[in-house]
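Let us work through a complete example step by step.
Step 1: write down the sequence.
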Amino acid sequence: MLHRKFNLSSLSFSLLFGLSVFSSVHAFSQSDRKELAYNNVSTMPARLHPNPVQVTISQSDSADLKFRIHILNPEEQKVTIYIRSKSLGTIFIKTLTDSEFANHEYANLYNLNELEDGQYSIEVVAGGESIHKDILINTITKIDRRASIN
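Step 2: predict the structure and record it as tokens.
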């Protein structure tokens, strides 16, 4: 019986040793494959959806603080609009409903005239992707001094 235990323990040791050698060889060969695969990977990011959401954030007049957000959402993905202040954090959040899209499009004018001077951003999050624009609101005061003789 003692002889049988010895054989079982030596057999289990042999199996354990064999598996560890196989694992290390397997790990080595996997790392080689990953390196080769990495060299062959294209630099194009993978899209989660074939028709991603398209976002345009524009300003028609630089003197006016109104920004137009236009969203084309062909796959009716969940879309959330954030307006953030660098100093205050998130100051506006709107998750768009299906009824706000007409033919998969949304367009609205956002008036930022009431905001104080500072750094802001508009961010649109849809389908796991994020599009954002930085906005700097800066009041320029022009001093126009004149003298006249009457």
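Step 3: interpret the result. The longest strand covers residues 118-126.
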